[in-house]
Fold this protein.
Amino acid sequence: MSAGPSGGLRFSLIVPFYNEEENIDPLMEELAEVLPPLGGFEVIAVDDGSRDGTLDRLRKRQESFPELRIVSLAENAGQSAAVCAGFDHARADLVLMMDGDMQNDPRDFASILEALEEADGVSGARLARKDPWIRRVSSRIANAVRNRLSGDRVVDSASGIKGFRKEILSRIPRFNGMHRFLPTLVRLAGGRVVEVPVNHRERAGGVPKYGIGNRVFKALRDLFGVRWLRDRWIRYKVGQVFESPGDER
């Protein structure tokens, strides 16, 4: 183990999985190669109630990858819930995230960690996406609508590779769909968020879990929820605090 729970961990990496059996071994081998030079770390793999051999593959990888911790959800709860379960079990002050489909490149974590030295959140921007053209076009339209309605400015809201300070994550609300709006929520909580360019790779195995048909309406519903939340977010600045003369605290 790179470090114990009492300290020494530079970052916790959260990777949610749902029916990604084919990608477990190559991804874990890549992480075991790429992450050690970045400092003390742990990898928290969250199995979101997979129905294939994902959990068995993860358990097997622990034999050769001692930095791997596994959180197995009792049933499929969705990506936001899986991400939150990872947040709850992270032991480092810096929390990184990536998808489990091998399309994110863990070599980008070096620049994300560097950017986190002066920011509360960092989101990867996939400037040269390897998705089919219909996904690229729909994503570009979705980003424009999202930014217009949320009042935010995010180049690539659907990017799965990100990094945050754990303290700021404790100040944002939790709801289904929140994983799509983490940069916006962190900004609403008063945090500074930056975007850095990241690599994007074609899916090598497994089946995509999101498509245009099963994502558009859910994302739009969640977007209106975030707009409602933004308009009602409690904001205040303390001018002065006058303590009682008898207060010795």
About this structure: The mean pLDDT is 85.
